[in-house]
User: Which sequence fits this backbone?
């Protein structure tokens, strides 16, 4: 299955991209996506447990993904 | 009740007008603005970025929660994105309520939830030409000066 990881702000700057497509085995989780991102140059910028949203809703690392899911890896928010 | 992520100047008085109602005994307006220093560094402006679809959804959820907790539908919130200068309003929250205590509490709830979970980021720009993404969770390290 194919999923898309979205990067923002400092994470996008360090990893030099705003989105990445991954082809993963069925049953893959948010954790698997984070591991793939960490393996990229600059991936060490991610903290041990970054905020993540799946399809616009905050999600835990053990959430099982479906094909087409959008996984946003969210830097510390700073609204206001 | 209304919430929006906007890329143009916010009209705080307009928001206040939206929550006016004869049965309300109080209206509270919170305006967050860009200040000229942060952690001792002179700031010239801030670039706000967001995860648009989620920010819209999350801000609407925050307003709905505040409406339910504090029993008022008169809540209007706008958060601005893009480039802002010192003094510009980045966020405005208007709440109308029969009672002032609940109006204050609802306003406080909305801004605290925005700070906690709205997927918006800001990159400060400094007088020396540098700029930096702000991490509110970062711990400032202060040590003896050599």
Assistant:
């Amino acid at each position: 299955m194919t999923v898309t990881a979205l990067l923002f702000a400092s994470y996008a700057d360090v990893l030099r991209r705003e989105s990445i497509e991954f082809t993963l085995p069925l049953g893959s989780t948010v954790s698997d996506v984070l591991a793939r991102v960490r393996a990229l140059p600059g991936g060490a910028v991610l903290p041990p447990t970054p905020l993540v949203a799946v399809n616009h809703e905050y999600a835990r690392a053990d959430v099982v993904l479906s094909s087409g899911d959008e996984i946003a890896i969210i830097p510390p928010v700073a609204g206001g | 009740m209304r919430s929006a992520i906007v890329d143009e100047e916010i009209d705080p008085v307009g928001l206040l007008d939206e929550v006016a109602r004869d049965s309300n005994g109080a209206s509270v307006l919170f305006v967050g603005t860009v200040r000229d220093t942060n952690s001792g560094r002179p700031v010239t402006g801030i670039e706000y970025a967001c995860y648009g679809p989620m920010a819209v959804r999350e801000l609407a959820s925050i307003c709905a929660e505040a409406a339910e907790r504090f029993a008022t539908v008169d809540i209007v919130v706008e958060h601005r994105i893009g480039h802002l200068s010192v003094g510009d309003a980045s966020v405005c929250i208007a709440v109308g309520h029969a009672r002032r205590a609940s109006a204050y509490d609802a306003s406080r709830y909305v801004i605290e939830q925005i700070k906690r979970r709205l997927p918006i980021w800001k990159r400060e720009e400094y007088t020396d030409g540098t700029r930096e993404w702000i991490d509110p969770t970062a711990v400032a390290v202060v040590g003896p000066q050599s």
Residues 2-74 of chain A form a domain with the Ubiquitin-like (UB roll) fold (CATH 3.10.20.30). Helices of chain A lie at 9-15, 30-38. The interface with chain B takes residues 6, 8-10, 13, 53, 56-58, 72, 74-80 of chain A (CB under 8 Å).
